[in-house]
Amino acid sequence: MSPIIYLAFANSSDNPLYQLSAEERSIREILRERYVNKGHFLVESNSYSKLDDLRKDLTQFKDQIFLFHYSGHASGKSVLLPSGRAAASGLGKMLGELPNLKLVILNGCETQAQVDQLLALGVPAVIATHTKIEDRLARKFSEQFYESLVQGYSIEEAYTQWVNYLETLGEDAKAIVNPRDLEEDDDYIEQLNQWGLFYKKGGAESLQATLPKVSPNEKNRKRIYLLLAGVLLALASLGGLSIYNSVQPFDFVFEVVDRDGQASRALTGELDKLNMEAGDSLMMIEKETPEFSLTQTDPPIMGRINVEGNIYFEDLPHSLRNNALGYSLKSKYYQVAGRPESIKMKGNRGKLTIERTEVLCCIKGRVRIWPDLIPLEGATVVFQDTAVKTNAAGYFEFRIPEHAQKRIQKVSISHPDMKSTRHESIQPELIFQDKSPWDINVDPK
């Protein structure tokens, strides 16, 4: 099984971290050469890390995870997830059960208080923060640290290079504009390096760990090739080389593209996040994990969708090569373009065109005070029996049931600063529709 770097990100619509999505993309781009092109390890990235998702993933990949990275709002007692705060004690116990874990990175504010428990539970090394950290600098830490790791440096060497980089920034490294904290206070320790590297007593050797340099498949194949070498030499004299070629398993990757033939991340969850152009407000929709499988075999063979959105198959039976194969794509939001009945695997790479399905999902809008068009935070918006509050940028969003998706829906808006309750009719939108929000301008008292 391939080692895994697990990346967990958690943003907040009430207090958004505008660098978090860019940080996730940067890390994946930095690691791409090693995990995509060379297959040395896998990357599992969760953009909306709910507690149940973490629990399932840490259980499923228990023996494979060697680096766990969290980025988002945090404190000494918890980290923030879309499902709410996750107590550090519970998360620590889950991480302590990973037998091959080498490093935990907690890239949020004031996470050093979580370190002692992690070390006591068996985690070899932890990178955590002494105080509040600036969102933009936290992104820079991730970029710098992973750049060093992919160049072959150890954990300790990569951390040292980050410290050296901070010294070049000088006083600029101390500025806190958009912190990743959970506590509502303005007190923090101003220091040049807010990050620390911690390890168990007597366990300094753990800091010399590096990223895997050889994939498990490479190791296994080398062993197999050595064992077969003698057999092939014997078969060669009898014309038996064709036997080897006819039974050799093969790997295959589908490059997912859009209708224009351009690389697409349709299956990665990249579009699970709707970034509203105005107000920098994060609007989220239901996250799904698409499944792609070949149905020609019994049982079906599941493909692995990596963070780039491509679909990988390993060690496929040679009998599948060049044959018309049935398939299944389980996704609410995407489908194979044209819906062909079968696909063919020629060579080791192919392209698969994926397009969006036309799915209605939500009603969303923005409430502003007339005539200055100031966003109204905390307004109560009611749809049927559900009420939500507008965020700091005045935005709201409702998921709507299927039976109501094709009809204009009514909402009511109220706030102590409004002259009266406002009733508005809103047309539901396509889930991927790129349009400005439905603006509702209300009269002040």
Summarize the structure.
This protein has 445 residues and is an alpha+beta fold. It has eight helices and 29 strands. About 5% of the residues have low confidence.
Topology of this protein?
Elements: E1 4-10, H1 20-37, E2 42-46, H2 51-60, E3 65-72, E4 78-81, E5 84-87, H3 88-96, E6 103-107, H4 115-120, E7 125-129, H5 135-150, H6 155-169, E8 195-199, H7 216-236, H8 241-247, E9 250-257, E10 273-275, E11 282-284, E12 291-294, E13 301-302, E14 304-305, E15 311-316, E16 324-325, E17 327-330, E18 334-336, E19 343-344, E20 349-356, E21 360-369, E22 374-375, E23 380-383, E24 386-389, E25 395-399, E26 409-414, E27 422-426, E28 429-430, E29 438-442
Parallel strand pairs: 1-2, 1-3, 3-6, 6-7, 9-20, 21-29
Antiparallel strand pairs: 4-5, 7-8, 9-15, 10-11, 12-13, 12-17, 14-15, 16-19, 18-20, 21-22, 21-25, 21-28, 23-24, 23-26, 26-27
Helix pairs in contact: 1-5, 5-6
